[in-house]
Amino acid sequence: YQRRVHGGPVSVLLAGLLVGSTTYRIVAKNNDCKKEVGQAVWDRVFPKVFFTDGLFKPCTCGLQLIKSMDLSKTGLSDIPDSLFSFTELEKLYLKGNQLVTLPDKVIKSLQLLEMQDNALIHIPLKWWLKSPLKISSQGNPIYETLDLCNSNIMSLPSSVTENLPNLKTLRLCRNGLTEVPNEVLKFTLLEILDLSHNNISIIPSSLSQLKYLKVLNISNNPLRNEKYSLLDPKLQPDSSLNSGLLNVSSTPLLYIPSFPTAKLYLYDTQITDIDWSLRGLRSIPDVFDQLPQLTSLNLNGNQLTELPHTLYDHKLLSQLDLGRNFFADLPNGLWKIKSLKRLNLQTNKFSEIPPQIGNLTNLQYLVFRFNPKLTTLPPEISQLESLTYLDGAACSLSSIPDSISKLTKLKSLLLPKNRLPSIPPLEDMTSLTELDIQDNLITYLPSSILSIPQLRLMDISYMPNMTQITLPNNASINLKELYLHRGNQSGLPCSLPSLIAWTINSNENCECTTSVSCCVSHVALVFEGMEPVQATCCYRNSTYSLNRYLSSKC
Hints:
It is a single chain. By secondary structure, the protein is mainly beta. It is built from four helices and 23 strands. The chain has helices spanning about 1-35, 40, 125-130, 160-165, and strands at about 70, 90-95, 110-115, 135, 145, 170, 190-195, 215, 245, 265, 275, 295-300, 320, 340-345, 365, 390, 410-415, 435, 455-460, 470, 480-485, 525, 535. The strands form four sheets. A ten-stranded parallel beta sheet has the order 11-12-13-14-15-16-17-18-19-21, with no helix packed on it. It has a six-stranded parallel beta sheet with strand order 5-6-7-8-9-10, with no helix packed on it. The protein has a four-stranded parallel beta sheet with strand order 1-2-3-4. Helix 4 (about 160-165) links the parallel strand 5 (about 145) and strand 6. The longest helix is centred in the N-terminal third of the chain and has 36 residues, at about 1-35.
């Protein structure tokens, strides 16, 4: 009893000493831990375990026991290095801070990282490659933009596609990629894709599944010369890329049916052919200074009234199609493109062709049909010394210059459905093989025309004022097809292959009888120095020769 009585105060004293010592040790260690990991981190450590090996063992911070930590809304702008001391940390909450990037080191034990509502613009690849790790980054720029350039990857980590479902910008430049990663297609909201400076040879058509893609940078890749469906708005009419940005600079592409409403970067390419036809365009991008190799440009079927000035400086452009547009005045710069060989101006609204057309001395093919305001041609058209084909059908031409006969290389002269009262002598056009002047107001056809040595086809149909055709005397006529059909006659003319190698063609609807009168009864065939001879008889399904020395019989 005495021992217990006397021992009581001793036990209490010892207990007090133990509590005081322990408290001192905890306080001291707590301060040490604050210094070790930082107060902001240490204040969020829970639970705090100082005696991991028992009360009488040295105090520790117990960092290895921490499985979860919430550092949300603590004003962090950087990840503290001390976090890497938590070797067993599995869950880390960093929401609502000011983080811009993550460190290159990774917390190896981490399985969940929540970083919503920060300012993150970059997460190093090591974090994406960490598995298993779920990263939540909503409310950050990186949630919509991911930059993996210079990351030495050949495919996308699965964690990227799983954790960034709303990604809009993906940069994969300078990775040595040989193909576009299939994982890209999982970013269904993607708007910007940078694949530049890789080794990609094919643009896969599967990229057309990215309906919101507005910017594609595939410059500095060894692309094959193919007509990629992705780059053809005719095949992908709903693609957002049609009005976005396309960069194919420094690729070996030779042609690209690209997007005329997009912003284009085409520097250092070998593009020679562009087809922007049938788009309803009111303007086209001024990119022609980027395309020194361009040889063909098709702008047919739009609503253009002018052209970019850089087009006029081209040295190699040989084919230009401006048909079916709204040109009320032909651009002055057009006549500076002296390399042009084919020019289509059909179905526009211009009323004159300026004299400067004579500058196009390399032009071989000229079409300006269906321009109802056009009434005359300039004399300078005779300066087109290389011209072989001229089509001015269905205009309102009331005259053509006599100088047109200087076009000695012209093979086809097509001027039907105009208002021509006469046609100048054409005997100097020694290369002419086809002459179509039907449906004009011509009353007299110079006999010398039939003497043109290469002339094989002539159409003088539907000319009610022409009642006589004079054949040249003592001249070789090589005509193979002569069309004489009149608008007020039924059927077509009969077919009469002759000994002098010219014919009048018809079809089976020609109603011929044994009588002298035939389908061309109102058009007389006259040999020079002889009386008029009516086109003589023929039987349906049969033909007879017309000998130039006969007068009235088959």
